[in-house]
Amino acid sequence: MALKDTFYISHGSPTLSIDESIEARKFLLSWKKGVFPQRPTSILVISGHWDTAVPTVNVVDSVNDTIYDFYNFPKQMYQLKYPAPGAPQLARRVKELLKKSGFGRVDEDKKRGLDHGAWVPLLLMYPEADIPVCQLSVQSHQDGTHHYNIGKALAPLKDEGVLIMGSGSAIHNLRALDPHSTVAPWALEFDNWLKDALLEGRYEDVNHYEQKAPHAKKAHPWPDHFYPLHVAIGAAGENAKAKLIHSSIEMGTLSYASYQFTSAVN
């Protein structure tokens, strides 16, 4: 069944996996009933936690390993598992589409499982872990347009029933986190700018957010958690409609804003 939507999910802190006080957790738990009832054939996750020199897919023939790429968190988090099957055919299809669109080199990683940018939100969204999952890396030394073009190349996957999901954080500045703080004014300003730009379809502004957005460098000192958004926008196709599907800010600056992009009807 063809899908018309792509998504950008802000996964925030790894504690999303266990902390019931995080507002975004309830949103992700309601995914199948309240957000996206269609069942995808497979899931492609572009995670801010996998950053490589060239686009790389994980080609896993069996079950994906659960990667615990976080440190000094509660012990129970290291016992969680998300044993989703790999999606080797999808991985090779991603590679084929990217190469066809002029990306000269696309690597395969046959050992890597799912990092927490993938498995933490999926644990809440699809807890049965029975849908095949493949990951695609970001290139943080590139720009928003590069990632938008990756998305554009992958647009045909929607017709094949693949759920394309960028996973990052709408604001991601770990040094600015303060568990006792109210929302920082600069964070609210960036969050609102992003919402307005996306809902108004100003995708080129988002591609060039460094020049266009207020407090861009403060919101994203490093762009790895923002670029999955550009992939999701590109994959939705031109004139796609954006919808804000969740909004909350924790610890003063960590935005969980998440978006759905619906392809324009041809």
Write structural notes for this entry:
The radius of gyration is 17 Å and the shape is globular. The protein has a 6-stranded mixed β-sheet with strand order 5-2-6-1-10-7, with helices on both faces. Strands 3-4 form a two-stranded parallel ribbon. It has 10 helices and 10 strands. A hairpin with a 3-residue loop joins strand 8 and strand 9 (254-255). Helix content is 32%, strand content 19%. The chain has helices at 23-29, 31-35, 88-100, 116-125, 144-154, 185-199, 203-207, 209-212, 216-219, 227-236; strands at 5-10, 42-51, 56-58, 107-109, 133-138, 162-168, 241-246, 249-250, 254-255, 258-262. Helix 5 runs parallel beside helix 10 (227-236). It has 266 residues and is of the alpha/beta class.
Please outline the helices and strands:
Layout: E1 5-10, H1 23-29, H2 31-35, E2 42-51, E3 56-58, H3 88-100, E4 107-109, H4 116-125, E5 133-138, H5 144-154, E6 162-168, H6 185-199, H7 203-207, H8 209-212, H9 216-219, H10 227-236, E7 241-246, E8 249-250, E9 254-255, E10 258-262
Parallel strand pairs: 1-6, 2-5, 2-6, 3-4
Antiparallel strand pairs: 1-10, 7-10, 8-9
